[in-house]
Amino acid sequence: MTKLEVKNLSRTFGSTRAVEDVSLNVDEGELVCLLGPSGSGKSTVLRMIGGFERPSTGSILIDGADVTNVPPERRATGMVFQSHALWTHMNVFANVAFGLKLRRLGREEIRTRTERALNMVGLTGYGNRRPSQLSGGQQQRVALARSLVLEPKILLLDEPFASLDQHLRERLREEVREIQHRAGITMIFVTHGQDEALALADRVAIMRDGRIEQVDRPDVVYRQPQTEFVAGFIGQMNLLAGDVHAGSLRAGGIALPVSLSDGPATLAIRPEDLCLQRANGEWDATVLRVTDFGTHLAVELRTETGAQFKAMTSPSEEWVPGMRTKMLPRKFTVYRDGRVCDLPMPTLDSDKSARASYLTYSKTLQLSDNQH
Ligand SMILES: Nc1ncnc2c1ncn2[C@@H]1O[C@H](COP(=O)(O)OP(=O)(O)OP(=O)(O)O)[C@@H](O)[C@H]1O
């Protein structure tokens, strides 16, 4: 059963189209990250789901019921912001219990639920402290407890850990994941940190200019980016503008067989998919720089056309600046007009010369693989 359905949501502010035709389904107990550069519309989508912003068009359904015009407090959603805005004159217990008091619940129930929420975020025993007596990370946990205590069906988190240092952020990220698993809460988490999104999410929605470019599992987003933007935004990628002519894509000084009509196209190769082979005769690139990360070598290369490539190789390989190499991508993707091209392996019937060059290419690749 789908917990949350966002249908064709748009929002304009004056002449700014902050969100354009966004649709997204989030399942019960799922954690979806909205990821994208600054200004891509992530917060506006989240605020519309929470009821803090009115959509210009589109609708929002929770458990099948249309809540587009329902006020935030009646939506079964909770929201945690980057700035936690705790009430400094109240202690931690009162901060967390506040929402329950507004609902006029009994004393005992308020105490039990507040203590449970504090326990969930690892703050048992901190109830009597003032926010000023807590660290930044602890304050953010109080903000989290303040939302959790209301037992929302959907928890919306807008860069909740952005102001914390890397170490603390990672720890809290783990804790959120654990709470999400334990309590089975559906969560939507806004971030512009791709590591955070890939580590945390069941699915990642990548936003750009108010639109969702791709929604998929983190591994799919990484391995099969559907647009050139996603390819360049997630992880490291060699992205090179090129041209297809007679079944060959030339980009950045290398040529690869493709079964694609003539015209401009962009070549995308992950550094870990770029095999290097020492060249005695013909060569593609010269090694510029080598960084040893222990687990792998990062090798920067330059082709004769001046294009730069990054490759990631095993630390047992020996590469030094000035060496000449052949570059053989194990896997590559081609984009045209910003969208991924389906590149089936050419068949004998359809294109004999393309298939022949593909087979030659695969064979060279196998040879270089065997050398590793
Ligand atoms: N209340 C508002 N009035 C006018 N423009 C707004 C308003 N809120 C957002 N915008 C604009 O809408 C666009 C999307 O903003 P939004 O905050 O949703 O992006 P974001 O992806 O969350 O960015 P960030 O990562 O920087 O928080 C931006 O161009 C922003 O300037």
TrEMBL record:
Q: Which GO terms describe its biological process?
A: quaternary ammonium group transport
Q: Which GO terms describe its molecular function?
A: ATP binding; ATP hydrolysis activity; transmembrane transporter activity
Question: So where does this one cross the membrane?
Answer: none
Instruction: Look up keyword Transport and say if it applies.
Output: yes
Q: Which residue windows are coiled coil?
A: none
What's an example GO cellular component term for this entry? Answer: ATP-binding cassette (ABC) transporter complex
* SUPFAM superfamilies xref list: MOP-like, P-loop containing nucleoside triphosphate hydrolases
* A matching Pfam family: ABC_tran
Keywords associated with the record: ATP-binding, Nucleotide-binding, Transport
- InterPro entries annotated for this entry? AAA+_ATPase, ABC_SmlMolc_Importer, ABC_transporter-like_ATP-bd, ABC_transporter-like_CS, Mo/tungstate-bd_C_term_dom, P-loop_NTPase, Transp-assoc_OB_typ2
**Domain ABC transporter: start-end pairs:** 4-234
**Recorded superkingdom:** Bacteria
PANTHER family given in the database record: SPERMIDINE/PUTRESCINE IMPORT ATP-BINDING PROTEIN POTA, SPERMIDINE_PUTRESCINE IMPORT ATP-BINDING PROTEIN POTA
Protein known as: ATP-binding cassette domain-containing protein
